[in-house]
What we know:
By secondary structure, this protein is α/β, with parallel strands linked by helices. Helix content is 16%, strand content 27%. The strands form two sheets. The chain has a seven-stranded mixed β-barrel. Strands 2-3 form a two-stranded antiparallel ribbon. β9 (184-190) and β10 (198-207) form a beta hairpin. α4 packs parallel to α5. The longest helix is centred in the middle third of the chain and has 10 residues, at 127-136.
Amino acid sequence: MTVLDLTHPIAPDMPVYPGDPQPRLTPLAFLPEDGFRQLGMTLTTHTGTHVDAPAHLLERGETLDRFSPGAFVGPAVALDALRDESDLLRALDAPAARDAAFVLFRTGHGALWGRPEYQRSWPAVPESALRLLAGRRVKGVGVDCLSVDPPGCGAMSLHRLLLSAGVLIYENLRLPGELPGGGFVFVGAPLSLPASDGAPVRALALCDLQ
């Protein structure tokens, strides 16, 4: 089994959603002086590679602690979101996608991570594809950009579509080209926080690449 990391590292200069604060990493203890190292962290529940819970936008939406650990693990596929919409819908009807608990969409925007362009003009997955997955009530949907909604979408309609169906949303994923087309096991376990609207995750793909 091969384990691929789908997570962007947290760093002070990392891309964040426009208007969100940058994370702060502050050394609190040093090995020579204190005998140990310790780092203080200040970040939001939506810093870096993270998961959105229904409570992020819905008044009565569930918080992350209401989901069992199994809600963050399952069979997954990664699909090219920029193909023709009808082709994308056909891809979602293929056996691997129909059996998937998680569908991760590669928009290509992830290649801009670390550049100013990453925080501007990211693409969105067609609503028809997300509506199909909301109807299936998959465990989660993920994208390789800052948001599942396009820039400037104040209504956050695509978020609401998925979260209203109980579908978790993963954003800022790394989706490398070596992810197997036939599927893999996705692990997107969040930090364990009480009554949280979201949390950073360490996202992994467990692949049989033999």
